[in-house]
Structure formats: C-alpha cells, structure tokens
Amino acid sequence: MPDIPKSSKIGKNVVIENDVKIGENVFIGHNTIILNGTEIGDNVVIGFNCVLGIQPIGNQRMRKISKNHNQLVLKNNTRIGNLVSIYSGTLVAKNVFIGDHASIRENVIIEEGTVIGRGAIVELNSKIGKKCTIQTLAYVTGDTIIEDNVFIGPCVSMSNDKYMGAEDYSLKGPYIKKKAKIGNNASLLPAITIGENAIIGAGSVVTKDLKDNQVVVGSPAKDIKS
Amino acid sequence: MPDIPKSSKIGKNVVIENDVKIGENVFIGHNTIILNGTEIGDNVVIGFNCVLGIQPIGNQRMRKISKNHNQLVLKNNTRIGNLVSIYSGTLVAKNVFIGDHASIRENVIIEEGTVIGRGAIVELNSKIGKKCTIQTLAYVTGDTIIEDNVFIGPCVSMSNDKYMGAEDYSLKGPYIKKKAKIGNNASLLPAITIGENAIIGAGSVVTKDLKDNQVVVGSPAKDIKS
Amino acid sequence: MPDIPKSSKIGKNVVIENDVKIGENVFIGHNTIILNGTEIGDNVVIGFNCVLGIQPIGNQRMRKISKNHNQLVLKNNTRIGNLVSIYSGTLVAKNVFIGDHASIRENVIIEEGTVIGRGAIVELNSKIGKKCTIQTLAYVTGDTIIEDNVFIGPCVSMSNDKYMGAEDYSLKGPYIKKKAKIGNNASLLPAITIGENAIIGAGSVVTKDLKDNQVVVGSPAKDIKS
C-alpha cells in the first residue's frame, strides 16, 4: 500500500496497489480495487466494489492495444459510483460524476463537470467535453468526439464501424457539437457529425450529418415539419 | 457486525455495517456489502459482490438529494442476484426477484412478486406494482409509475426529461397502467400515459398517451390496421 | 481452496471454492469469486470483482430451473474482463474474450474465438458460434442460435416471448445464420430467422424472417431500394 493521508478514509477489503497516489479527504468504499498507475486528487469519492486503473487486454481478433496507457487520473472532487470500471490511460477532470455500473475505457478524456449516467459505457479514444450529460445506459462508441454542454439521453446508441467487422481500420465514431441534444434510445450511425444545438427526437435513427440547429425525428431521422 | 441468526449463512469477505438487521435463513454471498440502515427479512437470498443500502450522492449539476433516505428494506423471500446495487430509502416487497447487475435507486417501491431483469435500472422516486416483469436491460426512468401485472420487454427505454437538460424541474416519467405490455427496445417519451391492457410493438417509439386496450407499432407508434 | 499450479497468479481477497480446477499460467484478479464446479484451462485471464460458476436461482413466476447445470468450463486462452458474471452449466471455448460487466447465463455455449462486448448479456440455453462479434450492451435473449462469423452491433435487442408473458412456454429466440450483420440498436422479434450474409441497418425493427443475402433497413425493416 502507498502512503495514505490521514484525512482520507479507506473501506474494508480495499486493495490499493503500490504505485498509486491518493489526495486529501478521499473516500474509497469497501472492496474497491485501485490498480497501479492511478492518481486520485483531493476530495474524491469512490464507491464500493469498483475497479480503477485497469490495463487493457484483448484477444487476437480485436484491435492492437497501445502500451502507453500508464495512468488513470481522477482530478479533485470527482465522484465515482459503485461497481464502476475505469481503465488506465484516461483523464477524469474536476467535478465529474460517474454513475454506478458505468465503464470507461482507456485513452478517454472526460472534461470538467460532466455527468456519466449509471450503466453508461464510454469506449476507448473518446473525448467528452465540459458539462455534458451522458444519461443512464447510453453507449459512447470508440473514437467519438463530444463537445461541451451536450445532452445524450438514456439508452442512446452509437456505432463506429461502417463495415460491421468486414474490413479493418474503418473505425470512426460520431462527432457531436456543442449543446446538441439527443433523445432517449436514438441510434447514430458511424462517422456522422451532429451540428451545434441540433435536436434529435427519442428513438430516431440518424443516418446523415445534421446541420447546426437542425431538429429531426423518425427512422430514418428527417426534419420536423412545422 | 450486528447479530446474525444462526440459521443465516454469510459468505467470505462480506462487509455488514453495524446498523443492519438480518432475518432467519438468509444467504449472503461472498464479497457482498450491506450498508447501514438495511433491513433484511427471512429467507432472503443475496448473491455475490452486491452493494445494498447505498446513500445517494451527486454533483452540483444534478438534482438535490433529500436526506430522508434512511433505510433499505428487503421483505421475506426476496432474491437478489450478483453484482447488484440498491440504494437506501427503497422498499423491495415479498417474493421479488432482482437479476444480476441490476441497479435500483433511492425512494423506489417494488411490490410483491415482481421480477426485475438482469442489467435493468430503476431510477429514483419510481413505483412498480405487483407481479410485473421488467425484463433484461430495461430502463425505468425516475418519477415513473407502473401498475400491477405490467410487462416491460428487454431494452425498453423511458425518459423523464422533456427539455433534455435545458430547463429545471420538468421531470416526469411515464405512467403505465395495469396489464400493459411493452415490446423489446420500445422508446417511451416523458410523461405519457399507457392505458390498461395496451400493447406496444417491439422497437416502437411512443410519443402520445395510449388509451386502454390500444395496440400500436412503429416510429412514431400508430394503431395497428386490422 | 483447491491445488493451484505455481505458474498461476491469484489476487487478493479471491474466493475459490473447493471443487474448482485451475490450469497453468492462469491469472485471477483481486476480489474475484470462483464457485464450485468451475474448470479453468491454461493461460486463462480473469479480471477483478468477477463471479464465475453461479448456480441459477429464480422465483415462482420464472421458469423452472433444471438441476443439471453442474459445471462452468473456461477453455484455454479465454479472457474475462472485470465485474463479469457467468453461470454454471456453460461452456466458453478457446480464445473467447468476454468484456467487463458482461453476464452469461447457464446452459450457454460460446465457441472458439468469439468476442462478447462489455455489458452484453447472453441469456440461458443460447448457442453462439465461432468468431462472432457480439458488441457492447447487445442483448442475446434465451433460446437463441447464432452461427459462425455473425456480427451483432452495439445495443442490439432480441426477444423470445411472442406473448409478452401472457402465455406459458412460447419462448423462442432468433436463429441467426452465418456471417449475418446486425447494425447497432436494431430490434429483433421472437423466433425469426436471419439468413446467411443478411445485413440489417442500424435501428431497424425486424419483424419477419430474412432470406440469405437480404439487406433491410427501417421500422419495420424493408428491402433497401437500389
């Protein structure tokens, strides 16, 4: 175990590997595991039964794993729920909230004040801006860019693979611009751009780029007639 | 640890905080955590790696948390799967089954004999009636009312936020009446009412209230032509 | 604890019940639980906070549970993520990868080289062929057959219950033939057959059998016009 400040409170059966830094006033719940390379800021709250700082593994049918994912950083005042997994090589900025059962992969950046809902999954190489809301069970695929103040409703689904496994190296997630709002259970196709302030209705299937301020619904999603 | 009846069986590495009551013939699986304020009835089975009795936390962008969520009550014969999280301030009635990886928030009531599928999430302030089936990966949003004998298919998605984060205090989930049946992966918009015995086809997007016995499919959902 | 080969590495707070077999060069992460009847091959990697070898339970409203699910077998080179649950009575073949937070039920067969994404759920009595990709948060319902080289996109939803709980014993999942590709968040109705090489667009709702090589999109899914 590393040095732990007296102001921090560590639960029972917690495993903290040697190469971990822990700030002041940190709370770590029972049975949580903090793996080598994790750096935890001040006033961070981590729930029960979490696994933080996971090194990526794969099998021979999955993409090659870069070896540079050395560190998970949780900045001050971050709050992590229960039964959460977060990989090494990821940065979680100040005041971020990550809900129970969520999973965040390697090489991800989550900026200040963003909320990641319970059961939500953020895949590798994605970047989520400031003050975004990614709701419960939403799926942020790999190689996605989400700008600031975006709202992603519950159960929204994204994809980054145009050829559905049939060709190599064609992976590209959506690019979602500032203040866009995506209704619950909408589906986004790979590599589309969603413009600023665009609004997508619940359950819509978005197959093409959307302009700034465009409002669409349906399957496939079309402009709302006014 | 509190007093535990001899008839109850507690696994290894289990953490039971002091202010917990445990009935007769209870089974608690290895590595499970029972937090202060939890009351467990007789013949309750709790799986492995669960976290029960969680106090709500949030961040400054989420809604205020009431401080009155003091107790999680699991009534007799309740069965809880593995890797499940349940919050304090919630009542789980007799003979309820909660599947693996499910998450139940604070201030929820789940009535007698209901089944909550694995990976399903029930958000705060919701009430689920008797003998309902909430299938795998279904999402019951906050402030939802579900009457008795309702069937919610797998991956059904609900929402309670008409303005998708743009305005405060407009949260209202759906109101689903007795014996309604909702097909897999259907999407429900906020604040709609689903009438008694109504049937919603798989993948439908329900944008308006449904009357009793109405049968709808499609995006947006419309009456089936006979 | 059973005999563990010196070449295998077991984390802290790991619970391994007596009737477990562990091969050479196995890694088992901290806080993971291996229950009676589990057989682990050589070079298997199991992450943190997992529960493997679970005996099925249910309540009186769920289907009867067969008592023959005695063994979980993980063949050589299998890799299991973190916070994963797998039931007894299931066979995971060589070189399979199972992502974090996934759940695999009893009486399931997963064949060689298949990838099961994080948060994906595979229900009981299902069979998944060789070199399939079942992506993140996909839901494989009970009584499903998936042949070799199938691609199931993220958040795909299946159902096996035509009558949505209203009648007994009508459960039958889809039958998905070789090399079919299913786009993200598509919905499949119960008991449909998807032909070889068929392609289903993202967000589609598939209500009828598809022939070999058929390409469909929409709600309900129809042939793409060329």
What would you note in describing this structure?
The structure is a homotrimer of 226-residue chains. By secondary structure, chain A is an all-beta fold. Chain A has no helices and 31 strands. The first copy, chain A, has strands spanning 9-10, 15-16, 21-22, 27-28, 33-34, 38-40, 45-46, 51-54, 72-74, 79-80, 85-87, 90-92, 97-98, 103-104, 109-110, 115-116, 121-122, 127-128, 133-134, 139-140, 145-146, 151-152, 157-158, 175-176, 181-182, 187-188, 193-194, 199-200, 205-206, 215-217, 222-223. A twelve-stranded mixed β-sheet of chain A has the order 1-4-7-10-13-16-19-22-25-28-30-31, with no helix packed on it. The termini of chain A are far apart. The mean pLDDT of chain A is 93. The interface between A and B is large, with 45 and 41 residues.
Task: List the uncertain runs of chain A.
Answer: none
In DSSP terms (H or I, runs of 4 or more residues), the helix count of chain A works out at: 0
List the strand order in the largest sheet of chain A: 1-4-7-10-13-16-19-22-25-28-30-31
| Overall pLDDT metric of chain A | 93
Helix content of chain A: under 10%
The end-to-end span of chain A amounts to 63 Å
Main sheet record of chain A? 12 strands, mixed
Shape of chain A: elongated
Secondary structure class of chain A reads mainly beta
Q: Any idea what the radius of gyration of chain A is?
A: 18 Å
Largest interface: A-B, 45 and 41 residues
The multimeric state of the shown protein is homotrimer
- Which percent range describes the beta-strand content of chain A? 25-35%
Question: How many extended strands of chain A?
Answer: 31
